[in-house]
Amino acid sequence: MSTTPAPESWGRYPASTPHDVITLAWRTQIADAMRSSTRVLAYGLGRSYGDVCLNNDGTLIVTSHLDRFISFDPATGVLRCEAGVSLAAIIDLVVPHGWFLPVTPGTKYVTIGGAIANDVHGKNHHLRGTFGSHVRAFELVRSDGSVRECTPTQHADWFAATIGGLGLTGIISWAEIQLIRIGAPTLDVESIKARSLDEMIAHMVESDASWEYTVSWIDCTQGGDSVGKGSFIRGNFEDEYRIKNSESNQRIKNTESNMLVQVPVVPPNWLLNRTSIKAFNTLYYHKQFNRSKRTRTSIDPFFYPLDVVGGWNKLYGKRGFLQWQCVIPYDGDASVMHHILTEIKRAGMASFLAVLKMFGDKPSPGLLSFPRPGLTLALDFGNDGVPLMRMLDTLDAIVADVGGRIYPAKDAHLSAEHFHTMYPEASRLAAFLDPHCTSTFWQRVHTKVQP
Amino acid sequence: MKTSYQSIVIIGATSAIAQECARLWAKNGARFVLVGRNEDHLRAIAQDLTTRGAQHVAVSVADLRARDAHQAIVDASVATLQFIDAVLIAHGTLPDQKACEESVDATMDALLTNGISAISLMHRYATVMVGQEGGEIGVISSVAGERGRSSNYTYGAAKAAVTTYASGLRARLVDTGVQVTTILPGFVDTPMTAHVPKGFLFASAASVAKRIVKAMEARRDVVYVPGFWKWIMRIVRLVPEGVFKRLKF
């Protein structure tokens, strides 16, 4: 049983009340819905953590029922579908034909429209770049009733403005992407323990050429020499079906989007605290006895480990939580990342999940796309109010100082000043903004700042 | 999900529940005739089903309130599919009860759309299926048809007619190889109910569709979707009329 997604973001912070919610059934209804108010925003499955998917006092246009496929060619791997189609539905359709998403974030419950608007990335950024790099075309509907089919060569300026454009340039009605070939729906995965940040980074640098997927999980309750301690995980799709036994084959091939459990109630705020998080991280680190372990796994546990717990975001309690993801340049010196991790430890803030990854240098196609070459770190924090906000201010300043940036899709805190320092390109977006489109995020950061 | 139906007619194919049922059948490579009011919408669904594996999808645009057109719809679907494994009758609207109270025409129109037209189509497809010596007719009625609530009794009356007609038709066809399945959904989260505040009783169209497809495959008689509505309605039916008439819901 499910209900219409309540118009909240995945972090459930900040609280937001839209003035109105319009649920679309057909893509021909988009333009009328956009004209119904002067403050509209497309809302898909609400997996953005912060407030890029919120529209306080405005109108949310729910696109999740625009979930129809338009075409799929199993010979070429070109897929066209409506903007509200989820990555989960795409996986169900294309994996049996030997195709997979070119880029996937850590949840499959996002819409393709949202994946484009936030130009999402995944564990293979070092080889494939962002999701937007694999978009062949999309249709952009504007509140003035105009409709543009945008491709890298046709309306290329609108194409670039809309990829990573946070839903502010209009509403995408359909999109076409190029999928990637896979030999089998199983992965060859190696997990290696790293005792320090330098060791972790060495693993990344060494693996990037021959492993499609790399990611590190870090225990950020560690300090001193152990900063950056954690597990490095790398994986490749297998070339062919290796399991002959039909029963286990059945199990491995099953990529149907099923949640195993659902968080039934909102637990108290204190469930996830420093002690429980430290215990979890210690257990996680020691669950594997050997320094390195090689396993075979299927798509869901490798890419979407959290998706099996429906509504895991509620585990933070009523207070909600904030995600914070930065990217900072990396030239062989990890001292800034070390500084950031030490600062978090010093502030006494524990992050349940800390993920570290090296972005590659494939340029993002979007004007406002987040990824840049360098080290990216993603953290989440229960919303503990002022002390947390103060620490995030400190972290934002460190990131801004070294020419790094924060990921809008996950943000609920960044100041307008920092946003403009990190995204000078935002001024070029002005020409493409739809006069009817806005978001709580945009209201927060778009203010013109005098230096 | 395994289904065996290969040739399916869906009346009211643009409804959210019908779309989700069709997706389950499409995966199995079925052939479809989709009947609905809006050609653009039918085409969008046809593309979706074809992409999901449907072997062939034909669309047929019709206003089902025009009863004269029903036989042509039936004949065309038979010409396209030859043997029809299953028909799903899923069309309907959620009439505005207030408007119906103020206008006899609105009431008659709601009864025609949600009740009479479904009966006309059940009747005609039953004849076709008796002729082909087998088949499955699934008809979407509603729990609203089990008792007249002040907030929704025009819709309820239309669905009560559908439920009762389906029950009698099932009895008449009992030895013919043709089965009628009465489907009784509760609250379903679809664009049709987008304006209704959602409580915990709302089910997703996808989960409702799974149960419908399973019930038709198993040739069940009556199925509540989700299943807990069977127990809710059992209680609702027990409330004495004197009390029931004072309940405002």
Can you tell me about this structure?
The complex is a heterodimer of chains A (451) and B (249). By secondary structure, chain A is an alpha+beta fold. Chain A is 25% helix and 23% strand. Chain A has a domain at 186-412: 2-Layer Sandwich (Alpha-Beta Plaits), CATH 3.30.70. Chain A has an 8-stranded antiparallel sheet with strand order 15-11-13-12-18-19-17-20. Chain A has a 5-stranded antiparallel sheet with strand order 4-5-9-7-8. In chain A, α10 runs antiparallel to α11. The longest helix of chain A is centred in the last third of the chain and has 16 residues, at 386-401. Chain A is globular, with a radius of gyration of 21 Å. Chain B has 249 residues and is an alpha/beta fold. Chain B has a single domain, classed as Rossmann fold. Chain B has 9 helices and 9 strands. The N and C termini of chain B lie far apart (37 Å). The mean pLDDT of chain B is 94.
Pair of chains with the largest interface and how many residues each contributes = A-B, 20 and 21 residues
Spans of at least 5 consecutive residues with low confidence of chain A: 1-5, 244-257
Low-confidence stretches of chain B are: none
The helicity of chain A comes to: 25-40%
Biggest beta sheet summary of chain B: 7 strands, parallel
CATH level-two architecture of the domain at 186-412 in chain A: 2-Layer Sandwich
The number of distinct β-strands of chain B equals: 9
Structural class by helix and strand composition of chain A: alpha+beta
The percent range for strand residues of chain B is 15-25%
Write down the Rg of chain A. 21 Å
- CATH class of chain B, named Alpha Beta
Give the assembly state of these chains.
heterodimer
Shape of chain A: globular
Give me the number of helical elements of chain B. Answer: 9
What portion of residues of chain B is helical? 40-55%
- The figure for the number of domains of chain B is 1
Q: If helices are DSSP runs of H or I spanning 4 or more residues, what is the number of helices of chain A?
A: 14
Order of helices and strands of chain B: EHEHEHEHHEHEEEHEHH
